[in-house]
Structure formats: C-alpha cells, structure tokens
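hiii, so i know i said id send this last week but things got crazy w the move. better late than never?? heres the sequnce for the chain we talked about at the cafe, plus the structure i predicted for it. fair warning i was half asleep when i ran it
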Amino acid sequence: MTIAKVAVLGSGVMGSGIAAHIANAGIPVMLLDIVPKDAPSRNMLAEKAIEKQLAANPSGFTHKNKAKLVTTGNLEDNLDWLKDADWIIEVVLEDLKVKQELYHKIDPIRKKGSIVSSNTSTLPLHVLEKGMPDSFAQDFMITHFFNPPRFMRLLEMVKGERTRKDAYEEIKKFADVKLGKGVVDCKDTPGFIANRIGVFWMMVGLLDAIKLGISVEEADAVMGRPLGFPKTGVFGLMDLVGIDLMPLIAKSMLATLPPQDPFRAIYQLPDVVKKMLEGGYTGRKGKGGFYRMNKDGGKKVKEAIDLKTGEYHPVRKPQLESLALAAKGGVGALMTHPDIGGQYARAVMGKTLAYAASLIPEISDDIYAVDNTMKWGYSWKMGPFEIIDKLGAANFSKALQAEKFPVPPLLDKTGGKPLYQVADNKKQYFTARGDFADIPQTPGVWSLADKKMGAKPVLKNESAALWDLGDGIACLEFTSKMNSVDPYLLGLTEKSIEAVKKGFKGLVIGGDGDNFSVGANLMFILYAANMAAWPMISDVLKQGQRTTMALKYAPFPVVCALGGMAFGGGCEFLLHSDAVQAHIESYAGLVEVGVGVIPAWGGCKEMLVRNLVGLPQGGAMPAIAKVFETIGMAKVSNSADEAKDMKILNAASRITMNRARLLPDAKQLCLTLAENYTPPEPPTLYLPGPTAKAALMMAVDQLVAQGKATPHDVVVCKALAGILSGGDTDITDTITEQQLLDLEYAAFMELIKTKGTLARIEYMLANNKPLRN
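okay and structure toks below
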C-alpha cells in the first residue's frame, strides 16, 4: 500500500504538529477533533490548532503554503472521511477508555487494509488492542512521535503479536523517507526506550541536585554541553516539557514498571516542586518554573530558584573548575573531578548509565538502538553506551563497584572490551549475548564517515579533503572550524576541480557535520584588516571569486549537499553549484551586511542572475528590489522550502526529508546530472544603472526615517545598491558576470576599511550576534 492520504485524530499540540509535518512531506492530511460546546464552528479545535502551528516561531510548517494540505473537521460530522485514509493516527487523551471507544467507532468506517496507529507514550500496545477484533489488531501499531514533530527526529514504533509485518514495514519506510524520521523498533515495555531512560535521568538529576546542594544553574551547566546534552540541562528541560507533567508521567510509569525497577526506589516529588506546582509555577507555559523572567527596574531579569529555600535569585554564571576542564578533557575529566560539578556528574550519570545498561535486553536487544533513541529523542550528542565507551566500560564498572552499585550483566560480559568497534571496515556493537555483530545498514543510508573508513583522501589539507564516493563521484568535505571558508579551503577546492576533471564524473560538496558552512573565516578577515594587510584581503576575494566561477563553469556537475546553516560564503557555494540537495531543515542566506560587508564571491551577481534571467529588458527593477531586500536585510530561509522561494535553491535542486539520506541523495542527483552534462551558458544581463541606485536608496532613506536602519546600514546598503544597479551602466548596455564581480570586489575593499564594518566584525566574533551601529 502507498500512503497517499493520512488522517490525524486529535488536534492538540502533538496532533496538530504531526498533521503539519505530514503536510511538510507534501501528503494531504485530515485533522479531526471533538466538537466543542457552544463554539461558533464545529471544527474550531482543529482550525485553531492549525492557526497556532502557523503562528508559532518556529512554525510547525516548513512553508505557509503547506497548511493548504490540511483539511480540518470533527469526529462527529466527518468520520466518514476516514474511508479515504491510508493511515489513521490517533492522538487523543491518554485515557484507555477514550481511545478504545474511538477505535470501535472508526473500525467499521476505515477502508480495508488501512493502518491505524496510536501516538501514546504511556499505554502498552497489548492493552490498547485488547478486545479489538483480529481485523483491527492486524493493522494496528504504536507510532510515538516526539515534540515538536517537525524538528525531533525520533519515531518509536511498537508492533503487536497480531500486527501485519507488511503494514509495519510500510509505515517504517514512509516515516524514514517521507517524514525524515529515525525509526527505532521498541519492545512493548513501559515508556518504551527514550522516556524510560530520559524520565529516570531527569528525576535523578532533580533529586541529586537537592541532595548535593548544587544550584540549578550549576546543575544545568554540568548536565548540558560538557556531556553533549542540550544546554537546557535537566531543569531547563523540565521547564520546557512542563513541571506539572512530572507526577503524571511518574504515575503512568509506576503503574506498569516491573516491581524491581530502580525508578520505584528513587521516585519522590520533592517539597520544593510541590510548592512550585501549588503556586502555578509549571514551567514555561506557566508563571515560570525552575527559571522565570522577572522585571527589575523595567528590565527583564532571568532568575533561578534556590532548591533549598524556594526563593528566586538572578541567574549566576557557574564558576566550576570541573566545567573548565571538561571543555578540554571531555566527559572523563568532568566525571572524575572532585568539585561539586564532578560529584553531580558522577552521581547522575553513574545511575543513569547503569540503569540504561541494566535494561538490555528488556527494552531493546541492541545498544545502538538505545543510543540512537536518546540522540534522536533527547538530542544527546552521544547515547548512554557511547558515553560508557568514552569512559571505558571497565573503568565505569570499577566506579560502580566503588560506589557499591551493582554492575549490569551486559557490562560484566565485556571483559574490558569496548562496546563498539570497527572490524573489516564495518561498525560493530557488543551484543547481549556477549559477542560483536555488525550494525545493520538501512538501504540507501550511509555517511561520509562510512565511505572514509579504511580509505585515503584523494586530496587533503588543514581545511578540506576530497574523497571518492564511488561510481565516479567525488566528495569535497569542509573540515575547518564550523566549516568556515578560508584560503586553505578555497585552495583545495580549486585543486579538487582539477582532480575531478581528470578522474571523476561529478562533484558533491558536503559532509556529516551539523552545518554546511557558516561563511568566510571572520577571524582571518579581521586579523588582516587590523594589520592593514589589504593585499591579503584582496587575494582572498579574488581567490573566492575564481573558485566559485570555476565551480559554476566546471565541465562536470557540482551538487551541494546542504544541511543546517549555509551563510555568506557558504551560501555562495550553493549559488554557484548546478543543484543543491537540501535537507528540509536548511537555513541559508547571504548575511554579510550583518558584519558590514557585502557578498563578494559572486553572491550579489548570482542572485541577480537567478532573478533577472528571462525577464524583458526593461522589467528589471522589481527583481533588483527583491534581491536588494533579500541581501540588505540578511534574510535567511527557515527551511529548504523557503530557500526555494528565495531562489537559493534552483529548479534542478531537490529536498531530502531524512538527514541520514542527504549525501546518498546528493550523489544520486550528481550521477543523474552527469548524463550528457554540459556547463551553463553565461547569462546576458541588462541593468538600469544610477537610476536604480537612486530608487533603492530612497527605500533606505524611508527605513532611516522609521528608525529601522542605522547609520552604518546606510553605508553598506549604498555599496550594495551600487552593485545591484550595475554601477555606471545603462539599461541598453549588456553587463557581464565579471563586471559584477569587479563591483563586488571594489565595494568589499571599500567597506572593510571603515570603522563601522570593523566594529561589526569584532562584535560578531565576541557576541555571535550583529551590532546595530
């Protein structure tokens, strides 16, 4: 069966979020909810839910037009719509009676073979399907999404003894390819995998913080980036999820957990939390939680609660030696340090990692599945078993023994061996049987790390490397800090172009990093400017222009694999490629004005080309104004869909929903383009010249009058207007790409010598946000 239409029953935060994300995949979806009493519209709940998804920042939709794929209705008037649904997702109250009553209503209506799933996170599948006929149970499963569905990669799936294998596999494939999910097969156990471990971790994090007397700010600093966890830590996460949910989640867990489970022994709701809930401090959705925003002298001040007194105080930056050492020495340095930060890390992670290890094979037979679950569901950089491997399984077992904690049987079996290894260029994991097995590869999914295993680069320097992906396709990997573009990276790109000419069919630019590229190396630019080394800056500008133009007119296809951020110079690489294979969560834009310069590696030129080609000779001004706004306001796409609107992605570009499939998809696109490939023809452009520049500056003057543009904004925008208008050209004259590149070069060299631009670069490097000077 092909999933061509989906129905979501229940339009709460999760239901509407799931519906929005299914629409993001281009699939029509019906969203139904109950009929509210005395409401002006019987579909009001579903309608309002979609409005909230659109209004949220960030939105649940990757593009506002995707909302048109959602049809809203209600569970009284529109149940007959379900006969057209291939997949029906139930997301109603976590109440067994409510769910089963709904199942009995929809079963006679749904078409034969349609799949029904529940988004439950607390009710076991065998309880949900109890009393339902075989015809229903065969099509029934659990699909547990994580909030928000657009951004959280994890999908936990559970099948029952009666679930059809083909139905289960169909949803797995759809969730992987179409929805971009990392699917984990879970056993029908309480909390499945992510929440079974995650809830335990949060509870231990709360109780041990109180026991040790560590502050909320210190605890979150420890349970955050040093361990590879989100900066919310434990307390920030509880505020985000909702503190009022803690007792409810605990109640559902305690109702189904095995009698000997360690969660039963540790769970308690501390007095400080009880008082917070009584006072309406439920987290971000309430008056505040462990953190709150308060006003002091008209200014907002972030405060944190004292876990002993229950009083709030202004947030204090932690000053722990363990945190400073962890930045260099990693997890091991943190967990062995004697200060309170190290004590807290040992206490919380010791219990959590031991708990996770003790649950093999109860919740999963495979440690890699557990690690993936915590990475995809809780955004941990490493899963629990990867962390144990960092510490050393033998060292961790000794530490547990020293604290008189039982060593989980799995760790006993290792005999000092690691939990992960590479053998015959394949990644392997330690099994519950006590041996190693290959980590299975999903068809069509591989990473650059997989291709690099046991291989040598074709070319390499300190900022980039060229790899052979097979089938005649090479891959240029950026390896500089945050993939920033510097002379070394540009130099290797030029060398790579020559290497691909001689031995490959095409070139993919991309890698496994979180981001494509944050743009030019500002530290290099600032250093050269402060030294008045203008020839050095001149050289890198010309090198960048030479490189991007060489990519554009190479005798082979160039495909950029875009994931995460592509700013400034990184975006200019995209603009000069034949196509972009973009992950749906891609954020691209020419943001140079934020640091007081303009795109000078062909960004202005290429945006003009993409917006002007095909327009009549005298109709350029609206397109020029659009490019001026896009670059002048440093607009960044909020998704790959929006990048298409902005023309950062061209007509040949494609979108990948699953990040794990990005490089394979980019390689396939490159192979397709390589068939009978010919480089593009140079464009013929007509630009209005000084009249256009005057019109653009009038718009800037209006922004100044409204207080929306600063003095240095005017300086930068004047330089930008000079480029986009074509300089001293006339609408009857053609203008070449090289002439536009020359205008970019001249404008950049002029701006980099101004105090306002240097101040912007310094401020950005120090504060990671633009200076409004």
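btw The longest strand covers residues 579-589. thought thatd interest u
miss u guys!!
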